[in-house]
Amino acid sequence: MNIYRNPFILALWAPIYQLVATVAVTNDFLMLAIFIMCTLGLLGAYVSDFPVFPTLYMNEVAHKTAVSSLMGMLLGFVLFMAFGTGGNEGTDGGTVSAGGKFMLTWGILSIPAYPLMTYLIFGVNKRDLDAENAIRKEKKKNRQGPPIMKKDGF
To answer: N or C: which terminal CB in the chain sees fewer CB atoms within 10 Å?
Structure first.
């Protein structure tokens, strides 16, 4: 198996991407909103066939990283809210250091994202991306403008 297409190694992009999310979460709500908007921008670029990276495989990996990041954030925060809160809500809670909070947040975000990314990359590796890319280029070449542009009156 090609090491550059190994799902367990490529899935490490999810925790790396979640490091950026963790910085955004622990610093400021506005940074978190900007991070989520940038992630949604990656998804929008994939859906609209806008090439962010030079190869289709790299664009697929970026898309799967964005999807697993958002799902990891959603599942991580749901798990954190379900199991991490409760009891002693009125106390200061100053026993955890800033680095500990950072690592805890990163772990909560990355634990659901890594298995999801591994699963999604398995699906990408089963597809024939070269054939899909040829079909996309053919469809793009055969596209015609709107019907009003075909009139002879212009």
So the answer is: C
